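Progress report, Aim 2. The chain analyzed during this reporting quarter is listed below.
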Amino acid sequence: MSIPYRDQMPTLNLYGPEFQADPHGALRLAREQNWCASTPIGIAVLRHQEVQALLNHRQFRTPGADLLAMQGFGEGAMAGAMRSFLLNTEGADHDRVRRLVTRAFTTRSVDAFRPRMRAIAHELLEAQAGRVEFDFMADFADRYAWQILCEFVGIPAGALMEIQRWNADIGLMFGLSVAEHAPRIEAALTGLYAFIDELAAQLRQSPGENLLSALVSVEDAGDLLTKDELRAMAITLMSAGSSTVTNQLGNAIVTLSQHPDQWRRLAAERDLVTQAVEELIRFSPSVILGVPRIASDDLSWNGLEVQRGACFLPVVGSANRDAAVFEQADRFDITRKVERGQPGHLAFGGGIHYCLGAALARAELQEALPILAERLTTLELAGPGEWLPPTEAVYGPIKLPLRPPLHLPH
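Predicted structure tokens for the chain:
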């Protein structure tokens, strides 16, 4: 790969102590030197303009089953599942499935669910009344995201624990220890496939007001989702739809605890919530690195001569703090506005793989945060908590102890 001014391209050690301790600080130092950096797993793209261009470029694809093949699982159930996910499909197959899913997964259906989101948030907070301390992640964020997801998608409440276990095991498929966990992953795929197939059959006979009912019946000129496509979409919703919102809520609470004046303002001025959510997603996103992109062919791009198979990382967490796009980019401000026509944050990706669940994620945050700000009149962390590494698919706290007011006002 030929890179102009290679001597000016910094090295970004994603696994080093600097990045692990302060990913945004490490990214800022690298971004100020060049638009790209060398990392152990490919070229990191750091600035907003170049990240957006990479996400939109049709000659860069997502990795698909490449990581599995590197570990000896190029065929079989896991590889088949990986290839079936919408994120890993391209061309006409991708466009067809996305068109069908978009017809079912509408903004109207999300907005109709907002009252239930508010009710769930209040119920979970009332359960903490009188406690001296509670774990925000386990007692609120995770339960909030999963309960909304299950009800919105149409998963029976009694299946939640089993769904969570299968989901956790399937998540191991995206790591670097697949051989060690292969029996668990394959068993989880078998169990979850059978569950989805049975539930889909029931909903075809007796549909409800939920997303899975819409997905099993959605059609376009007679075209329907296949069984494999429906399975893949359900798994995607259950994995991405829970972890990203859970961790984004955790990141939001940490950031707002560091800005108590803005926490109080959010409670007092509900009309700021839309701006506040966008600023939180920009400033402290639950996804930092973004999904890698692989060059489909040899090509010239942005002054680089790129070889087929080269790996690029669209570092959306860096692009979101690019001073060329965002004034005082390292300052958190819930009153920040992005004017029409100006570029916004890239936390939901871009191009053909822009996050399908963006509207649902935004709604969950928009409904939860004002309620939290109103009822947790003081936001006091009881410790630093425990955190996922910033190199994971999602970034945020695993545990986050809070000291709530003893009497949570309603």
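The chain has one domain: 6-403. The first helix runs from residue 17 to 21. These observations will guide the mutagenesis work planned for the next reporting period.
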